[in-house]
Amino acid sequence: MLKTLEELILLARERKVNPIKGSYTNKLLTDKLLAKEKVSEEINELFEAVNNNSNTIHEAADVLYHLIIYLESNNIKIEEIMKELSSRSK
User: pTM here?
Assistant: First the structure.
């Protein structure tokens, strides 16, 4: 299950090193303002989907994708986030 998230993180990191022309992921990685706007937009779409009890899985997937790309574009490593979360567990 978490393999898909790992693959997405690796894809983002690979695209940073080896960009692919025309790639949406690369566009987000290089345009931090766009990446930020997309995270905000997708979160709001998820809120709306939850309120309407429709399309929640699709919207949640969009949030995760855009958040991971946003984090990577700003050199915020998921490993560091996981370490922080781990330190909070009792």
Answer: 0.93
Of residues 55, 57, 59, 70, the one with CA closest to residue 8: 70
Q: Which of 89, 86, 73 lies closest to 36, judged by CA? A: 73
**Nearest 5°: CA angle at 61, between 82 and 37?**
85
| Domain covering 2-88 assigned CATH 1.10.287.1080 in the classification | yes
State pLDDT tens for residues 44-75: 999 999 999 999 999 999 999 999 999 999 99
End-to-end, the C-alpha distance of the chain in Å comes to 25
